[in-house]
Amino acid sequence: MTTTRQLIASDPGLMAGWEPGAPVGDSLVRRFLHAFGEAGAVVAGAMDGTVVRTDDLILTDAGRPAGFSNRVMLLRPLGVTPVAETLATIDEATAGGTGEVVIFSAWPTPDLRGSGWKLEGHPPLMLRVPGPGRPPVPDGLEIAPVTDAAGLRDVERVAIEGFPLDELRGAPPGSMLNERVLADPRQHLWVASADGRPVAVADALVEAGVVSVNLVATRPEARGRGYGAAVTWAATEVAGLPAMLLASDAGRPVYERMGYLTLTRFTCWSRRRPG
Using CA atoms, how far apart are residues 85 and 56, in angstroms rounded to an integer? Predict the structure, then answer.
């Protein structure tokens, strides 16, 4: 049987969009791969963690529980580079750390359960092009950019409760984000507050000609009031560029009402390290 890898090797003049040297701007999906990967790199770098960039992946790891910042964004399909080789690279780079590591793939993958990974699902990748449509902010809601450690603590608390991020419950402040992330001009975070209490948060990283919208979370008791959508609008419109995000199936209708369109579905695998 002819494999994908053999096809690429036998037809080097045909562009696939994931080969070494393929332009970052080859497609919106490829732009997102790099933007989402760099979003993790900002956080891991601020925490003196591990950042690995190769032709195959962008790997970021704080070395301890840190939410979705411990992740592997594949830049090529698993199987173009041998699966065992890619997994060995991931194992080596994340060895000795604690907390969950997540693999994100824009393509279907082989079954990784035999290598200790758990299938998390197939989240939709969504896109909104710049344009009108932003509604008024809900009454009583205030949205503010995060500029200091106090704002970051609010982001942490809401994100931990909103997703939820169980492995970070009870962790000391700064376990998920520290002030060094605010030094990167590509990075933007917002907190939405109702009656003076933080209720929703969102994050955006501007990279590769797109806005990667991340970490959208609302406290459970504050849902259904438009707070999450309102803070997502702040992230979506931060740079006047196409905005992209990975949604959950539960959150997808919210983004569709904002004008986001689904492009494809990713495949996500997770592995929990000891400790």
Answer: 11
